[in-house]
Amino acid sequence: MDMRTFLSRNPVFTRSQADEALKGDYSDVRHTSNARLAYHVRAGHVIQIQRGLYASVPTGQDATAFVPDPWLVAANLAPDAVIAYHAALQFHGRAYSLSDEIAFLSDRAVRTREYRGCRFRRVAYPKALRLAEQEQFGVQTVDRQGLDVRVSSLERALVDMLERPDLGGGWEEVWRSLESVEYYDLGLVVGYTLLLGNATTAAKVGLFLEQHREQFRVDEEHVARLRAVRPAQPRYMEPGTSGRLDPTWNLIVPRSILDRAWEAET
Predict the structure, then answer these.
(1) Cα–Cα distance between 192 and 12 in angstroms, integer?
(2) Least buried of 78, 159, 167, 233, by fewest C-beta within 10 Å?
(3) Model pTM?
(4) Domain boundaries, the chain
């Protein structure tokens, strides 16, 4: 494959991907892969996002102003990257509000960074998933501009955002975003929740499903499986935030959620 063909097929790429694809190209044997990349960067055909990561610049666009697809950037920041949390819902078109932060899962130590208006934040895979070797549970591979992007399913994102509302934009954003989804595979939701092995998370998911029994056609079986692993003692849904005890889930729930305070503000 020659360099022009490679760039047309790879809007975002790593140095190793370029090396592998171009190793059989003898059209210009005088230049190494390094030299060829450097030439195309100077010519404005390619921009370097960080060491080892590049983006192709479409013909006719200014390299200094071009913004590469942020989802493809996130997907290539680590070999095991999975777009997750609020970013996953945004990728699927189900986030209530748009955010310029993309959280991605990876076991690689990738520092948080900003690039051309977008903030990329790495989050470690939950320990329970690593121990069970289930890091890819509920992960989908989606085609974007001809490249594969790994992203959390809507079901996994539901559980992850309830567990980590700080990565979901806060409770109002979490609730409104999750409610906008037409359908969840509740077996997958419950299975993933139990896999995490966190009683408080199970109670949060149970509370959400119970509040939306009719909308998502929640069976008693789904709720019962979560209720069986709820906390033995009351726990705060959000530490440091007062609320009211929901005895069904042994969960102290912020009043803003129980009263749906955001609806009164609209």
Answers:
(1) 31
(2) 233
(3) 0.91
(4) 3-56, 70-264
